[in-house]
Amino acid sequence: RTGTMICAILIDKGLFKEAGDTLQYFGQRRTDLNVSEQFQGVETYSQIRYVHYFQKLNSENIREVPSRPLVIKTVNITGLNGVGRGDGSDFTLTIFNAGSKVLTCDFKSSSDCDAKYDPKTDRLEVSLKSPPIVNKDTKFMFHCSSKGVPKAYDDCAFFFWLHTYFIKDLHELMFRQHLDNPHKEKTWRVWRENFSVEVVFGNVE
Question: What is the C-alpha to C-alpha distance for residues 12 and 90, in angstroms, rounded to an integer?
């Protein structure tokens, strides 16, 4: 979190224009090769995503992030074959918005969602029966009941943060390198290269 704020300050002060350049600079300055060769920059992808968000606001001279309520309609996941039960039935999704829990959905048996896995395409489609309305910062957290699926930050399988103002074309597609916890190479024995999550939104009518 400290690195995220430092990168934002460097952009705000005009020292860097691009988020990628700022993140690279911070990582190089913070990593002490005399102690370890391990990269010490901003690694959690949601934090990286928010540095890019800030860069966009700064370039457009926006000082207060506009409100943009959206409806979460569907969550699509690929690459679950070999992960836990292999069909997503051991996963639970919890969504938080404005500091409150707005949805908890057990993919195996829940009245709040309809989860369908297609083994031919290795794709799980989760349709939310009562789509929640979210606005601004929104957290998606996925837990898995199978012991073989690693847990890391937030004691869950994976998670990510999104801000509704920055959603393009009413959907967000993220591959494993864009997801918090699966972004770490040590977990790639479980999270394969084709693992992805797509969140499909709708406008509030």
Answer: 43
pTM for the full model? 0.90
Instruction: Compute mean pLDDT per 10 residues along the chain, 205 residues long, and list them.
Output: 84 86 76 54 82 92 94 98 96 96 91 94 96 97 95 94 97 95 92 97 94
Residue 35 is predicted with a pLDDT of 53
DSSP 142-193: EEE--TTS--BTBTSSEEEEEEGGG--TTEEEEEGGGSBTTTSGGGTTTS-T
Which whole-number Å values give the CA distances from 96 to 47, 70, 115, 121, in the listed order?
A: 17, 14, 20, 29
Residue 38: its pLDDT value, please? 56
pLDDT of residue 33: 47
141 and 97 in contact (C-beta within 8 Å)?
Answer: no
Closest CA to 52 of 205, 195, 163: 163
Residue 171 to residue 193: CA distance in whole angstroms: 21
Short-list 158, 167, 8, CA closest to 77: 158
Q: Which residue has the tokens 């005009």?
A: 14
Q: 3-state class of 94 per DSSP?
A: strand
Residue from 79, 56, 58 nearest 13 by CA: 58
Phi and psi of 135, rounded to 5°? -145, 130
Burial of residue 91, with CB atoms counted within 10 A of its CB: 0-12 exposed, 13-18 middle, 19 or more buried: buried
